[in-house]
Amino acid sequence: MRPLYLAGGIICTALGAIGAALPIMPTVPFLLLAAFCFARSNPALEQKILDHPVWGPQVLDWRERRAISRKSKIIAIGSIAVGAIFTWFTLGAPYIYVSLAILVISGGWIATRNE
To answer: Where in the chain are the domains?
Structure first.
């Protein structure tokens, strides 16, 4: 199982890195999954994620308190809103309804987490 967890951690880390550059894709959820996988396959790589100056505190906040900082909430919900606006201008109806549903469901969930 260790090689599968290692592969999963590497893939999730790569997806998190892509998410750091693209506003439409999340970063921290993929890093949470990567840390989970690395904890079961390579603790040194897990520690690298936890020690990262930008992403480490967010991963630790979620692990310890199931919390998302206010700044992160604003950025996440704002990014989803930008994606919905982009969908509206580029694809229009009926695709905007999918984007709005994602905004309401995931944005609502994010907004109700501890800070």
So the answer is: 2-65, 70-111
